[in-house]
Design goal:
single chain; mainly alpha
Length: 636
């Protein structure tokens, strides 16, 4: 029996918890307190309301949750935080490709410098068009597409305007977007030093609003030491960020953001003493005596996953020994961190991480933690397959485990197991062979069976559809198309099938027409529209761009507009530039449509193969209730 045998048997014998259903919504970050209908089974019940004759008591200050009300005009998120669509929304940039033609357009087309960027600069001027929301959108678009120092100066000016909080916050994030992976696209050292200096001054000024200071800290983390690459310079940045953690900050999210920013620096820039401090935070559940920090222990666990070594594995494993409710978020962060650590370590250490994951999965009761552990197992197997370029013992054993879990109707992690099979299969597709093909075909067979089983719930079948797309399984296009075009099926199934078609990487004309149909039909669900538009963008369907542009004008929901925007930006079709410019500058056009056009133009001119800020949003614990991270996701 292989080394995983005992652990696998224990895991299969463990009790399963019911899977949380995806209830739609726009999958934005959690808004503070959990609504009663989404409260986890282990959460304490809210106290009953006082009798009308007595004055209402003052609510206690929450120890580990910072309320963050939804901005005016937005819908409250209704998705369970542990449901698989919520996870995929925040991690999709790892798996959804940007067509090579779009990147070429952004880096070589003169339209970017002569037409698109001047339009974005003008849109940043709130006084001209009277909308702070449009100006904030333009600042974010300019940050991702900026070309010269005048653009950076404009962002710094908006960042310094404390009277306009929305544009100032957007500018703080946009400054982090100035990171460029290609040295030819990077800004001068002098300009980036000026940007970092302003960000550091903001973080240290306790008189400045706390959210802006925390956003500035995250931008420092994303920028790092660009354009310098020396190990000594990276150590200096890590040390500088780490030193700010010892200062008492009035706003408790600032230390959490600083810790996250430091964890984005190269692991080699961290000293053993600094990692020891992270382990102490996890153990003692406080950052430093007298220093307030929101969810410091949970963020320290995430940081260890990004910068730790095999020496830090015992500290992460110890978080699962105590299954008490007050420290659920620490365990959830540790579950995510173990997957990140497994991706960075060698094969032998990866087996140790996997053993810890399996042991935790067999003993932890919290439903959200179990789902995150399942995904980390998939990430570990995918890393092993990618490193070896073949099916390994680890990939083979975990594949067997996840297939059994995905088809088990009583398993509470079945949807995550289905996605996990797709994540592993995507790694195997990088170096195809007969053995990798057999592994992917065996997984596709299981996922296809659940997808076709009408007795299963729609969210689980939707996860299997998306798993097929991640697998890149050849010949699955017709199966997915039949789901997308079946009007009798629920949107929680049709929408993931549409996105899965885009993930396949290629499609027939019939399949493209099936994706285009929801954008043309009146009254189509916003979720189906957004996933179909995203799929067309991934498939480089440039002849369908007019249809997607029409969606920008007619659809009002933010998530739907955002998906259509991403599709247009991914397509980078020259003929769409004039249409987007006309929509952006049309005074009679509705503001949401103008914002979408602005964001689309920024995407078209973005020279990065993947957004730099995905380093913040991917593999994050969105239940840590840190206000700054929700604000960060909302602005994006």
């Amino acid at each position: 029996m292989r080394w995983l045998g005992v652990s696998l048997l224990a895991l299969l014998a463990s009790p399963a918890l019911p899977d949380a259903a995806a209830r739609g919504g726009n999958y934005r970050g959690p808004n503070g307190a959990v609504p009663p209908n989404l409260r986890e089974p282990a959460d304490p019940a809210p106290p009953p309301p006082p009798p009308p004759s007595t004055p209402p008591p003052q609510p206690p200050v929450p120890a580990r949750r910072a309320p963050f009300p939804a901005p005016p005009g937005t819908r409250r998120a209704t998705t369970d935080f542990s449901a698989w669509p919520f996870w995929y929304h925040h991690n999709r940039e790892l798996y959804e490709r940007r067509p090579a033609a779009a990147l070429t357009f952004a880096r070589t087309s003169k339209l970017c410098s002569t037409t698109i960027l001047p339009a974005l600069v003008e849109a940043c001027d709130r006084k001209k068009h009277g909308s702070e929301t449009l100006a904030a959108t333009a600042l974010l678009a300019l940050g991702r597409s900026a070309r010269d120092d005048t653009h950076v100066s404009l962002l710094l000016t908006a960042f310094a305007d404390r009277e306009q909080r929305k544009t100032s916050n957007a500018a703080a994030i946009a400054l982090g977007m100035l990171r460029r992976t290609d040295p030819a696209q990077q800004f001068s050292p002098a300009m980036l030093d000026a940007v970092r200096n302003q960000l550091y001054l903001t973080v240290k000024n306790d008189a400045i609003p706390g959210r802006l200071r925390a956003l500035a800290a995250l931008s420092i983390g994303v920028l790092g030491d660009q354009p310098t690459t020396g190990a000594s310079m990276a150590k200096a940045t890590t040390a500088r960020l780490f030193a700010l953690l010892s200062i008492s900050h009035r706003y408790p999210d600032v230390p959490s953001a600083l810790m996250h920013a430091a964890s984005l620096q190269p692991p080699a820039s961290w000293s053993a003493a600094q990692r020891e401090q992270l382990r102490a935070v996890i153990k003692n559940h406080v950052l430093l005596p007298g220093v307030r920090a929101a969810n410091a222990d949970a963020h320290a666990a995430l940081a260890l996953g990004r910068v730790g070594t095999s020496e830090d594995l015992p500290a992460l494993a110890a978080t699962f020994a105590d299954d008490q409710a007050p420290f659920r978020n620490v365990r959830r962060s540790a579950a995510i961190a173990l997957g990140t650590l497994a991706e960075r370590l060698g094969s032998a250490d990866r087996k140790q991480v996997t053993a810890v994951l399996l042991a935790a999965l067999s003993g932890v009761r919290d439903a959200t933690t179990r789902k995150l552990l399942t995904m980390s197992l998939a990430r570990a197997a995918a890393a092993d397959a990618r490193a070896a370029g073949a099916v390994t013992d680890l990939t083979r054993d975990l594949g067997t485990l996840l297939r059994a879990d995905a088809v088990d109707p009583s398993s509470g992690t079945r949807s995550y197991a289905a996605l996990g099979l797709g994540v592993i299969g995507r790694a195997l597709s990088e170096k195809p062979s007969a053995e990798t093909g057999q592994w992917r075909n065996a997984s596709a067979l299981k996922l296809r069976g659940v997808l076709a089983d009408t007795t299963r719930d729609a969210p689980t079948r939707g996860a299997c559809a998306l798993g097929l797309g991640l697998l890149g399984a050849s010949g699955e296009g017709a199966t997915l198309l039949s789901v997308v075009t079946n009007a009798k099926l629920p949107m929680t199934l049709r929408a993931p099938a549409a996105r899965a078609l885009g993930l396949l990487g290629s499609a027939s004309d019939q399949e493209l027409q099936g994706l285009e149909a929801p954008l043309l039909a009146a009254g189509t669900s916003g979720r189906l529209v957004q996933d179909a538009a995203a799929a067309l963008g991934m498939l480089d369907a440039r002849d369908r761009v007019v249809t997607i542009l029409g969606t920008l004008r007619t659809v009002r929901y933010p998530a739907t507009r955002g998906a259509a925007t991403l599709a247009v930006g991914n397509l980078a079709y020259r003929a769409s530039v004039d249409t987007l410019l006309a929509l952006l500058t049309e005074a009679k056009a509705e503001l949401p449509a103008r914002e979408a056009a602005c964001a689309a133009l920024g995407l078209m001119a973005d020279p990065e193969p993947r957004p730099s800020l995905s380093r913040v949003t991917c593999h994050a614990n969105w239940r840590t209730s840190a206000d700054v991270f929700r604000a960060f996701a909302d602005l994006l």
